[in-house]
Design a protein that fits this description.
Strands 5-4-1-6 form a four-stranded parallel β-sheet, with helices on both faces. It has a two-stranded antiparallel sheet with strand order 2-3. It is built from seven helices and twelve strands.
Length: 245
């Protein structure tokens, strides 16, 4: 597996800090942002090469970084490779954008390995290990997503719709009217998320009060609010986390 690191942006919102220096190489807690990502990914042991796609303005900075990283492994057998690709752009106005940069790197190097694509300026408070293991087990193209309830942030984000098997069935970039997320009830009683529910009947079978009725054939889910005691059993047993509390 190769890791393709997107680092061809210009980080104009951080000017003057990034006017003449790339954001991924800024140090956080004594180490460049990109190194935090690379070190985490290397520890997983599934990636044998890193490719950084840069713009022309900052390519030399990334080449110096790549040379420094490579020199750390000169005598190590099976050490990862570090390659920098220059996309040829020099201004924010002429930038290619993430998708075209991925295409540029793949075509320039003839990449045909599995690819882990990450943004080089992300500071994560978690390891990518679980995601890489998940994608390897699925043997399919996977993306990382997270739940966002804030409507203002949703308008500035890419919205992904998934089915009960975690397959992507829709995607919309920065929607003017984002879909309303399923919100928990103030009384603590369960709410069904139809987009995730597979109508397996686990919740109804484990409900001690008999308050839930699920019909797998008809794909219906109903709650008798008077009988519900709000114990949370349904949430605990739901294999798809289609119950919101």
């Amino acid at each position: 597996m190769k890791c393709l690191i997107l680092a061809a942006g210009y980080a104009t919102r951080l000017y003057p800090l990034t006017e003449n220096f790339p954001k991924p190489l800024l140090k956080v807690a004594g180490k460049p942002i990109i190194d935090w990502l690379v070190d985490d990914i290397m520890a997983i042991g599934l990636v044998d090469g890193f490719v950084v796609i840069s713009n022309h303005k900052f390519a030399r900075h990334f080449r110096d970084w790549a040379d420094s990283r490579s020199s750390q492994f000169e005598r190590s057998e099976g050490s990862p490779s570090f390659t920098v690709v220059d996309d040829g752009t020099s201004t924010n106005e002429t930038r290619l954008g993430a998708v075209r940069d991925i295409q540029f790197a793949v075509e320039s190097l003839g990449l045909d390995d599995n690819l882990l694509v990450v943004a080089g300026d992300n500071i994560l408070d978690f390891s990518l290990a679980d995601f890489i293991s998940y994608a390897s087990a699925k043997r399919a193209s996977c993306i990382m997503r997270y739940y966002e309830a804030d409507e203002k942030r949703l308008r500035k984000s890419g919205i992904v719709e998934i089915d009960s098997e975690d397959r992507i069935v829709g995607m919309e970039e920065k929607p003017a009217e984002p879909p309303k997320p399923v919100e928990p009830r103030p009384d603590g009683k369960p709410v069904q998320d139809p987009s995730k529910c597979i109508y397996c009947t686990f919740c109804s079978r484990k409900c001690p009060a008999g308050a839930l009725t699920v019909d797998r054939a008809a794909k219906t889910w109903s709650l008798d609010e008077d009988m519900c005691i709000g114990c949370g059993n349904c949430y605990e047993v739901c294999p798809k986390k289609a119950i919101v509390l």
